[in-house]
Amino acid sequence: MQVFSVPKSIKQNSNFTFCSGCDHGVAIKLVAQTIDELNLQDETIAIASSGCSVLLYDFLDVDCLEAPHGRACAVATGVKRAHKAMGNNKFVFTYQGDGDFASIGLAESMHSALRGENITAICINNTNYGMTGGQLGPTTALGQITTTSPKGRNIEYHGFPIKTAEQIALCDGVSYSARVALYDIKNIINAKNSIKKAFEYQKKGLGFSFVEILSSCPTNWKLSPKKSHEKIKNELTNIYPLGVFKDINND
Fold it and tell me: Which residue, of 9, 69, 178, 211, has the greatest Cβ tally within 10 A?
């Protein structure tokens, strides 16, 4: 993997529209590198959800659809099944935020996994609703201050945060479920390897594959990019441990 090369499936001369220090740019580049390596560009359809993730179509040079908030896996299911019915073997993946995948769209996400839909879902977990103002989300950590939890998330009022990769791994239709992070080069390379495996499992027709990516949100966390990565490394990985929670070829 050439870490610093520009993938051909990245749109040229695109302006960076995410907040300074946001990890979405890194995540999208890893997706693009994987698409290139597996020669998927011409057969890929990406489903972007509402939220920061919707900006995917500004950067990725593949066919993209925008789904209503929370409905990315449902749209991906329809796209995949419709093309299969016409004899087209399209590669379909979703690119979603944690609020979209694990709260507003939890039913669509979970049931797509339970049905074993042969799609791949990528969930960017930055522990809040990033685009709409930094509200508490399904993965907001206990004690974390957000615009809608000014005293911090607490169990009695808000309940516990969801551990998405572990929950998805429990679904019988899932072939692969992993959680990765982007706070240093080692973990970026590991994230790339997980994305590639998830994509390969779809190509092999093994069922639903999933990668959760712990990502920084300096603007809403009110931290510098460096401090945001330190927060992921020193705090969030204790709540959301990195690793593979299901791999049908190794279980």
Answer: 211
